[in-house]
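Slide 14.
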Amino acid sequence: MRCGHARRAVAWAAAALAPWVVAGADKPVDPQTGLVIDKGYEQVKGQCTICHSARLVTQAGKTRDGWVDSIRWMQRTQGLWDLGPYESQILDYLSANYGVPPAAGPARPPVMPLK
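Slide 15: predicted structure.
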């Protein structure tokens, strides 16, 4: 990769990751897991990191519906138990600290076909 391309790639990656870096910047982070310490943190640490690394959470960035889909997939295929009353607390935490807003539509208008 040429130097100019590498710089653009790094700049693009930094811009793409900025929402996740800035979102939790004002909250403390657990040094053991890397999870933002916020309401619901204990439930996420206790329920999620039993089976997988907290990095799967911190790097995911999903809408609330995306988090629900992930939980359902883990319940269907990975043996995740019913989270019961903790599920809404976990979803609130994940959406607040590792969420992305639902897509508002295409980033740009569709390209018109050439005549």
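Speaker note: The chain has five helices and no strands.
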